[in-house]
Structure formats: structure tokens, C-alpha cells
């Protein structure tokens, strides 16, 4: 008899990944499909069913006791629905009900991808041992999640800790969410690149205009590229400081593609954080890069599934 396992799904705009996960967070069986994000709702669900089908074909499936889903958001955990910005075919899509049906009636837990990454970093990663933490995903968007009193706290809708839409510039640009001066509008990868281009940065011969290319230029001393990352770092620092001031946190863990810039991001982030997080109880606040990498979504979804069984 196998020890109990959980099934985990990590659903994003590019890929749908699945795994059977042990109680120690080890990924025993994996499956993956590209997300048919430009197709209709049923085509996307078909890819989810294929991933689940591959997991269910494993002899280990009989040990699975629940399913955890970490999905691009927004999610509505109370309703069991998802409306991922980058999957237009899914709007208020009843994902929990559909996965429950496909997965032989196993109980299903749903969290947003920022909350999943947070649960993973707290369980096995950079926030391990910290009872009060904010974990951020800085990539195409900026998401996040909170750990309070030793437990990930997704909130009733599953979106608590969504730092990307804290306003850090009252008169700033209009954000697609409807607010102004959001962290995401300054610190996300596409916005780092856009700001650099607007201020005169030019890509190299390969024509790469991503935030990663801007990071390479910043590392080589390009002042416009450096300034774009410093602006992003200030926005992140202001959002982290506001959240830490509110919730009395001791660590912020930063992951996602933009964190791959390394010191180009983290040096000005730590510098700016000292300017914004000034109260005495925030002096212990540290910043660390995430360590769980691309498996964070699956490990975090598994953590949600395990919590369901307690």
C-alpha cells in the first residue's frame, strides 16, 4: 500500500502541469500539456482532463486522496470558479466542479497561483521557518500571497496578498484593473521593458526587448536600463513595506521571471525597502529570492490539497 498522495494541478496561460505529490512535497509522477489559451473553454478543460488522465493512469493514483489546483487568476475559491486574465475562454469557469468530476469525485481545493507559490516557499523554500511572510511572483504580472501566524492565508476568495494591485503612485498611469499607479504597472516584466524603451534604451542586435534583455543591459552599466529596474524596485519596496506595516511581516520572498535579474533587482530593492519600511517593528524585515522555481505552483497546489484533508 502506497502512503497517501495528493494530486496537484498548476494552471497558467502557457502550460497546464500536473503531479502526484507525496506528503514530503516530492513530485512522484508528472504530466504536462500546453494551454490552448486562445481556444474556447472546453478546449482548455480538455487539456486539464488530459493531464489528469495521465496521472490517473499511474498505478500510484489509487493513493491520491484529494486534488489541489493553483490557477492563474483571478480565482473565486468560494464559488470554485476561475477567470484567468491570460485564458480568455475561461470566465467564471466552474473548474472545481469539473475537476471533481474527472478525478473520480475526490475533494478539490482551489487557490490562486500567487497563493500556491507562497504555500510552496513556506513549506519547503525561502520562507520556511518564518511565521509571517509575503511571497511575490514578479513576471508578466505581479501576484503574491501571505503567511500569517504560520499558515498561508488565501482569504475567502483565494486572492489575499495580491500585492500587484496596491497603488504606490497616486497620480500614476491608469492600470487595466481600473486603479492608478499599481505596483504591477511599474514592476512587471513588460512594464520594466516598456519604461526602458520609452526612455531611450535600445535592444542589441538580437532585437530582444524583454525585461531579461533590459537586465543584461543594466548589468553592463546602461543607465536607462538601471533606472528602469530601480523604478521597479522602488514600486516593489513601497508595496512590500505597506503590506509589512499592515500585517507585521518578517520576510518578503520574491520569485517569478523578473527575480531572475538577480542583484540588478535585489540591490535597489533592499536599498529602497530601508527608505519605506522605517518603523521599529519592520527593522527585522528581510528580502530573499524564491528558491522553488518552476515547481512552486505544483508544490503549493499540493499543500492546499493536504490542508483540505486536515
Give me a quick take on this structure.
With 310 residues, the chain is α/β, with parallel strands linked by helices. It is built from nine helices and twelve strands.
Description:
It comes from Streptomyces violaceoruber. The protein is α/β, with parallel strands linked by helices and 310 residues long. It has 2 domains: 5-116 and 295-309, Nucleotidyltransferase, domain 5 (2-Layer Sandwich), CATH 3.30.420; 128-291, Nucleotidyltransferase, domain 5, CATH 3.30.420. 36% of the residues lie in helices and 20% in strands. It has helices at 41-56, 95-102, 113-124, 183-187, 189-198, 211-219, 223-247, 263-276, 296-309, and strands at residues 5-11, 15-21, 27-34, 64-71, 75-76, 81-82, 108-112, 133-138, 142-148, 151-152, 251-255, 286-289. The strands form 3 sheets. A 5-stranded mixed β-sheet has the order 3-2-1-4-7. Strand 2 and strand 3 form a beta hairpin. The model has no long low-confidence stretch (mean pLDDT 95).
Key features of this structure:
5-stranded mixed β-sheet; 310 residues; ROK; ROK_cs; 9 helices; alpha/beta; 36% helix; 2 domains; Nucleotidyltransferase, domain 5
Architecture of the largest domain, according to CATH? 2-Layer Sandwich
Strand residues, percent: 15-25%
Question: How do the strands line up in the largest sheet?
Answer: 3-2-1-4-7
The number of helical elements comes to: 9
For the record, give the distance between the C-alpha atoms at the N and C termini, rounded to a whole number.
21 Å
Mean pLDDT: 95
Number of domains: 2
CATH topology of the largest domain: Nucleotidyltransferase, domain 5
- By secondary-structure content and strand pairing, the structural class works out as alpha/beta
Secondary-structure element string: EEEHEEEHEHEEEHHHHEHEH
Supply Rg.
Answer: 19 Å
Helix residue percentage: 25-40%
Pfam family, one: ROK
Family: Belongs to the ROK (NagC/XylR) family.
InterPro entries: ATPase_NBD, ROK, ROK_cs
Protein name: ROK family protein
